[in-house]
Amino acid sequence: MSVARPSRTRKDPAPAKSGKKAATAKTSKRKASSGPVGRPGAGRRTDLLEAMLRIRRFEERCVELYSAAKIRGFVHLYIGEEAVAVGVNEVLTPEDAVVSTYREHGHALARGITAEAVMAEMYGRTTGCSGGRGGSMHLFDASRRFYGGNAIVAGGLPLAAGLALADRMREQSHVTCCFFGDGAFAEGEFHETANLAALWKLPLLLVCENNLYAMGTAIERHEAQTDLAMRAASYGMVAWAVDGMDVEAVEQAARRAVEGIRAGTGPHFLELRTYRFRAHSMYDPDRYREKEEIEQWKSRDPISLLMDRMRERGELGDKELARIEQRITDDIDHAVEAAEQAPEEPVEHLLRHVTSSSSEAVS
Fold it and tell me: Is residue 239 within 8 Å of 232, Cβ to Cβ?
């Protein structure tokens, strides 16, 4: 019997080695990616930085609006995890599909859904990406193949498998990317999806955002084996752990995984080790973790890490950063203004998309 390797603790934000795989059942062949390669060098890092800052500033504005009772309902913020959404989406094409969780604001923005469409949805207005009916947890945009946030833990995994299967049956070389949290490992949907994806060699990228807490439960309290990449590999898929606080490490790992999937080697799994700086939701008093732990992880803020790297290389100055921040501020200001002016759905439309008329009924 093999002995499981020890995993990190919640108070150890040391970066994972993105170049070294966890236990794997196979290795993928390296081929030229058919996906986007982005701008080279400094330009690419500037794009990554701006994308992460856009998510961070959007989420910070959501905190303000929620506190002012402009946004209601459940809101799960993505602050601290921006490198995951940005790094992964950087390597996906518009034809690829994305399935998300209820913490999906960052995924949606990184996918290209506008701040205006997302903010209008947060306000529950008809101009929102889900017509004002989804709110924070159910962002959706079929035109971008963004198949939603899902309020059920692990609920998006079977949907992602179905999308990947459909693409394969149509002989389309697309990848389906599914984001989910570490809490999904406690659900049968993960294990059923992982087994079928590996059995059928589906073009599926499984992205586990391991932020160490399933709601308020620390990972070592709900998982006997906390090396999630090793557990995923047991299903016969390529799997490895990545420093989820380093956007360039995430991008490199995601590109490597997507290359393997497009080469026909079946599903790949990435355990992106990250951390959320805010509570589970705006309703959460966050009493299950120590402030010292949060501050320790904030020392590896993905935005600050990339900024420092760029400054050391002479790629980012104060003026350029100010221009980026101003563009983002203007965009979010416009999104808030548009949301507040957008119409609410009329009461007489309450049953639209819920029931069918007699003429639409199937005999």
Answer: yes
Those residues of the chain that have pLDDT short of 70 are 1-38, 40, 358-363
Q: How far is Cα 13 from Cα 198, in angstroms, rounded to an integer?
A: 31
Check if the beta carbon of residue 94 is closer than 8 Å to that of residue 287. Answer: no
In the chain, where does DSSP find H-type helix?
A: 41-67, 82-89, 105-111, 115-123, 156-169, 188-200, 219-222, 228-233, 247-262, 291-298, 302-312, 318-341
Residue of 148, 279, 149 whose CA lies nearest to 213:
279
**Read out DSSP for 286-322?**
--SS-HHHHHHHHTT-HHHHHHHHHHHTT---HHHHH
Write down the pLDDT at residue 287.
86
Q: How much is the pTM?
A: 0.88
Q: What is the DSSP letter of 2?
A: P
In the three-class reduction of DSSP (H, G, I as helix; E, B as strand; rest coil), residue 155 is classed as coil
The pLDDT assigned to 38 comes to 61
How far is 200 from 206, CA to CA, in rounded Å? 15
Read off the DSSP letter of residue 132: T
Residue in the block written with tokens 């120590």 = 290
pLDDT of residue 283: 81
Please count the other Cβ atoms lying within 10 Å of the Cβ belonging to residue 152: 13
